[in-house]
UniProtKB/TrEMBL annotation:
<dbReference type="InterPro" id="IPR024370">
    <property type="entry name" value="PBP_domain"/>
</dbReference>
<feature type="domain" description="HTH cro/C1-type">
    <location>
        <begin position="11"/>
        <end position="65"/>
    </location>
</feature>
<dbReference type="InterPro" id="IPR001387">
    <property type="entry name" value="Cro/C1-type_HTH"/>
</dbReference>
<protein>
    <submittedName>
        <fullName>Helix-turn-helix domain-containing protein</fullName>
    </submittedName>
</protein>
<dbReference type="InterPro" id="IPR010982">
    <property type="entry name" value="Lambda_DNA-bd_dom_sf"/>
</dbReference>
<dbReference type="Pfam" id="PF12727">
    <property type="entry name" value="PBP_like"/>
</dbReference>
<dbReference type="Pfam" id="PF01381">
    <property type="entry name" value="HTH_3"/>
</dbReference>
Length: 377
């Protein structure tokens, strides 16, 4: 047997998982223990006959045991969020606005429910927002066909997964961000699409004034995803008899709030101001959570008596709900991205009946105008 520097194997991990010693495996495969040791350490490349014997002895396929380490490409990318210098990172990748963007898979993003696979790994560079990424696969088509959406609507993940079923070559990456954070992510070139639900009481408009302000002259279109009911999530059965924000104060209820920049927090502040209720009069106003799901879980667990979210989230978590406002959820897309094939494929599915069915089953959404262009900025 000759040494092969490109040959890799996981013979030891499979053997130990099955509770076999090197000698046990050697006896079954009719080879010497030294052969097993040499293969596991990478000192020797087994012959075809020995490879087949080992696979049969372990009850697996040859490709499960051995593979060739290929010279995979490296790409320089811009990090979508700051991380400590010199940190080794798993990242997902996408091509946005003519540059490669690397999204660190750390913290909650490392173990999300939809579990984004890593496209590569790399180490951050000191004094820069760049990272040199060693790809784990040489299929660049997947990265070029990735559409990145930043937003906070849970239904976006349903839409993304449904779209990938109809367009297997398309990948949709959904990065959680509140409305203002999503808009700034779009502006920085980290996403193709930003989802938002912000209401401006001065103009009576949804989203457009904020887009106009943040994008500062860049051209974009706003496409409606749906209109959803926003309001107070309450414990099942509403034991405190809460009907309005005034009842929160009168009953001494404790709430959880969202971070600055989120549509839910903005609605709560606008509602309190309208009722002339000081923010500090509401217990828990400064207890900040980062998502609709986190707010719902806090109410379910009894950490809080109430929190701002949507009717669909209330239904999903079996909570009570007091509607306060109907908000339009829009998708903001820079015009320069509209002609890109992956983005067009994604948007085309907004008219698909299966997408509509997913929204309708979830509840709390009016999708009568889904897919309509409601503004051009």
């Amino acid at each position: 047997m000759k040494q092969d520097s490109d040959l890799r194997n996981n013979l030891k991990s499979i053997r130990t998982r099955l509770g076999m010693s090197q000698q046990d495996l050697a006896n079954i495969a009719n080879v010497t223990r030294q052969t097993i040791s040499g293969v596991e350490s990478g000192l020797y490349a087994p012959s075809v006959a020995i490879t087949l014997r080992l696979a049969k002895a372990l009850g697996c396929q040859v490709e499960d045991l051995f593979w060739l380490e290929r010279d995979l490409p490296e790409i320089e990318a811009v990090l979508a969020k700051p991380v400590p210098n010199g940190q080794q990172l798993r990242v997902s990748m996408a091509r946005v606005g003519g540059q490669w963007i690397a999204y660190p898979l750390i913290g909650k993003d490392a173990f999300r429910q939809d579990m984004i696979p890593a496209d590569g790994e790399g180490e951050t560079c000191t004094g820069t927002n760049k990272i040199r990424v060693r790809l784990l696969d040489d299929n660049l088509d997947t990265l070029h066909n990735t559409v990145v959406i930043a937003g906070c609507a849970p239904v976006i993940s349903l839409w993304a997964r449904a779209t990938e079923r109809w367009h297997p070559q398309l990948r949709v990456q959904y990065n959680f961000a509140n409305s203002m954070a999503a808009l700034h992510s779009l502006c920085r070139g980290e996403a193709h699409i930003a989802g938002m639900h912000l209401y401006d009481p001065e103009t009576g408009e949804y989203n457009t004034p904020f887009v106009r302000d943040v994008l500062a002259g860049r051209e974009a279109v706003l496409i409606t995803l749906g209109v959803w009911e926003e309001g107070l999530l309450l414990k099942s059965g509403n034991p405190m008899g809460i009907r309005t924000v005034n009842d929160l104060v009168a009953g001494g209820a404790t709430i959880v709030n969202r971070e600055i920049g989120s549509g839910s927090r903005m609605l709560l502040e606008q509602t309190l101001q309208k009722e002339q209720i000081p923010f500090d009069a509401v217990q828990g106003f400064d207890n900040i959570l980062k998502s609709h799901q986190d707010v719902a879980q806090a109410v379910v667990r009894g950490v809080a008596d109430a929190g701002m979210s949507t009717a669909s989230v209330a239904t999903a978590f079996g909570l009570g709900f007091i509607p306060l406002h109907q908000s339009r959820y829009d998708l903001v897309i820079l015009k320069e991205y509209l002609e890109e094939a992956p983005v067009q494929q994604l948007l085309s599915t907004l008219g698909h009946r299966m997408v509509h069915s997913q929204f309708e089953i979830l509840g709390g959404y009016d999708i009568s105008k889904i897919g309509e262009v409601v503004a051009t900025v």
